[in-house]
């Protein structure tokens, strides 16, 4: 078989592979010399493939373990951050393979003892956060050139073998079921490489205990645990009675912040939700800012901005003036150390007028904080839905149009910067669009899908409320377009898409009702938000944007616009109607009839 046939067989064996659409035997070959024609490949000068890098592509399905063994020149293979299943792919025939990345998938079963036999070039093996069971295979222990091994977050068991490789610089076996004494050759690694294994002991963890001592310890630990538990229960009870927790009230399509408390942080190691963070280091990803450290943030007075589905956000005012926002993420425990740093470095390189830049971050296994600038004008959600204070400017049509254009431009930039991510934003909603002092929109909470624990992401993140995920467990590069469509309808109507508050799937019936209510009201002329209607001579342009929103929300993905099409239509929109534009409400009926829309349908000069 040719490389093209092998790859296409591999593609066809997957259940979800939409990002591999240019893998096609009848088109260009995978490589032309060292140029790759197919996504996810790197080619040698002789047209063979040396790297297969299929990361963050939403791939699902069970890999046929033998399928790639014929790509004999492969030096690096990565399936990181997908949802692939099945047993460990067969790699030992890939004699030149140096680096293997399978982390953050659902591979399972025992890793065969001979899985890495004869792989004399093997340097890095990353198997973290899968469901592998059994022991570490001996063939891995005898891979002489091994420098990095990450196994954390599996269900591996047995004793840790004494890896003899002197150049092994990264080793992580945390959060498995390993037991027994840690071998001397691994004792120099940090304790965090071994935590989360109930049975491991010895340097760098506490010394192993004799069984008599163990029994005594169990008794002592039980007593201490009971006492501590009682104290925690009592403490929580007192806290619940005294704490003012900010809550959003979404009734009647309005968001009201109740009891937002300003709270002085009492002790230097306590954050305002009562949990502690250690005094570790803040990593800055931007060099155009004054430096501060975690202590400065903690010492500053903090105001709770709100608790979202991914974590809680606090505003802190630094002693030398600037206000920062710290978001503490709660559901990122599965992401590995290196990966997290790598992703943060990538976020740090992003720069676009419509993205809120990441300034710094803090990483601990159980604690991830992202620091950004505080944006005075708050979020689009609060502007659209909160009760408008007298004297506060209302969002007129030109402002809303500019917000939609900015959001679209920010999305285009994310799509360009994350060509292999299925969900470059993933969590686009009105509370994640902030407005600067000129009402220019700034996207936030973008590109987080690779970091958030998969189950939680699927419960709460906006992209996973799309019809394709609800019905077919799929997300594609058109999924963020769906969220853009919902956001456009929300901006035009001032109505809150209620289903985004629901956990898990199944909200789409409500969303369908919501979208239908939008269109049905259109020909009674009541669809648009009252404030927007105060601007005169723009109804036709508003209707065009409404159609665009509808085309982005198309249930059927084939018919749904790609981002490029949607953005082109949005960019054409103007602040004032063109009087020659003969446009009538009958067009709305066409959209509502929900037939497939084409570009021709969208020449907005339809006569009544
Ligand atoms: N940098 C910022 N400047 C000003 N307000 C912000 C900033 N970041 C977040 N906010 C606001 O703080 C509130 C809480 O934000 P947070 O991101 O924690 O939750 P969310 O956006 O409501 O939900 P989710 O966690 O699902 O994204 C929101 O109203 C948000 O718009």
From TrEMBL:
Keywords, comma-separated and alphabetical: ATP-binding, Cell wall, Glycoprotein, Kinase, Leucine-rich repeat, Membrane, Nucleotide-binding, Phosphoprotein, Receptor, Repeat, Secreted, Signal, Transferase, Transmembrane, Transmembrane helix
Pfam annotation, one family: Pkinase
EC code: 2.7.11.1
UniProt superkingdom: Eukaryota
Primary localization: membrane
Reactions catalysed, as given in the entry: L-threonyl-[protein] + ATP = O-phospho-L-threonyl-[protein] + ADP + H(+); L-seryl-[protein] + ATP = O-phospho-L-seryl-[protein] + ADP + H(+)
Compartment list: Membrane; Secreted, Cell wall
Protein kinase domain mapped to chain residues: 299-573
Enzyme type, top EC level: transferase
Family: Belongs to the protein kinase superfamily. Ser/Thr protein kinase family.
Protein name: non-specific serine/threonine protein kinase
């Amino acid at each position: 078989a040719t490389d093209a046939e092998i790859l296409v067989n591999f593609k066809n064996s997957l259940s979800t592979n939409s990002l591999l659409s240019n893998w096609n035997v009848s088109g260009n070959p995978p490589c032309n010399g060292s140029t790759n024609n197919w996504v996810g490949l790197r080619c040698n000068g002789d047209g063979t493939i040396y790297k297969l890098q299929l990361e963050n592509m939403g791939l699902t399905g069970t890999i046929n373990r033998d399928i790639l063994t014929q790509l004999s020149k492969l030096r690096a293979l990565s399936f990181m951050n997908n949802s692939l299943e099945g047993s460990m792919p067969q790699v030992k025939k890939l004699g030149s393979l140096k680096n293997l990345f399978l982390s953050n998938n659902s591979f399972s079963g025992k890793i065969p003892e001979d899985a890495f036999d004869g792989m004399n070039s093997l340097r890095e093996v990353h198997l973290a956060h899968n469901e592998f069971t059994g022991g570490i295979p001996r063939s891995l222990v005898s891979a002489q050139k091994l420098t990095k091994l990450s196994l954390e977050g599996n269900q591996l068991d047995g004793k840790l073998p004494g890896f003899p490789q002197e150049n092994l610089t990264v080793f992580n076996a945390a959060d498995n079921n390993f037991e027994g004494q840690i071998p001397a050759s691994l004792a120099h690694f940090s304790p965090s490489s071994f935590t989360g294994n109930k049975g491991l002991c010895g340097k760098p963890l506490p010394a192993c205990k004799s069984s008599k001592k163990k029994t005594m310890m169990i008794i002592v630990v039980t007593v201490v645990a009971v006492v501590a538990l009682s104290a925690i229960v009592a403490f929580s009870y007192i806290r619940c009675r005294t704490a003012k927790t900010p809550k959003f009230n979404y009734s009647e399509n309005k968001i009201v912040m109740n009891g937002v408390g300003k709270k002085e942080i009492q002790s230097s190691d306590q954050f305002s939700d009562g949990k502690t963070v250690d005094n570790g280091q803040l990593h800055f990803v931007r060099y155009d800012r004054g430096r501060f450290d975690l202590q400065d943030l903690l010492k500053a007075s903090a105001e709770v901005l709100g608790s979202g589905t991914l974590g809680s956000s606090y505003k802190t005012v630094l002693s030398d003036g600037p206000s920062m926002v710290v978001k503490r993420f709660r559901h990122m425990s599965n992401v590995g150390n290196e990966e997290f740093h790598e992703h943060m470095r990538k976020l740090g390189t992003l720069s676009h007028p419509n993205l809120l830049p990441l300034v710094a971050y803090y990483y601990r296994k159980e604690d991830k904080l992202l620091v950004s600038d505080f944006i005075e004008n708050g979020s689009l959600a609060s502007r659209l839905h909160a009760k408008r204070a007298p004297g506060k400017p209302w969002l007129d049509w030109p402002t809303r149009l500019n917000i939609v254009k900015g959001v679209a431009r920010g999305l285009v930039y994310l799509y360009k910067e994350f060509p292999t991510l299925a969900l470059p934003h993933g969590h686009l909603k009105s509370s994640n669009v902030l407005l600067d002092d000129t009402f220019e929109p700034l996207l936030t909470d973008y590109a987080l899908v690779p970091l958030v624990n998969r189950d939680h992401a699927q419960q709460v993140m906006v992209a996973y409320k799309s019809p394709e995920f609800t019905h077919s467990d799929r997300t594609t590069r058109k999924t963020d377009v769906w969220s853009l469509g919902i956001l456009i309808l929300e901006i035009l109507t001032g109505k809150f898409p209620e289903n985004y508050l629901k956990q898990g799937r199944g909200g789409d019936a409500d969303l369908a009702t919501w979208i239908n209510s939008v269109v049905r009201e259109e020909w009674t002329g009541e669809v648009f938000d009252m404030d927007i209607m105060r601007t005169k001579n723009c109804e036709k342009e508003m209707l065009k944007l409404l159609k665009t929103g509808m085309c982005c929300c198309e249930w059927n993905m084939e018919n749904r616009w790609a981002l490029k099409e949607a953005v082109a239509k949005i960019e054409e929109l103007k602040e004032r109607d063109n009087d020659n534009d003969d446009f009538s409400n009958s067009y709305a009926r066409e959209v509502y009839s929900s037939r497939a829309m084409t570009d021709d349908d969208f020449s907005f000069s339809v006569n009544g």
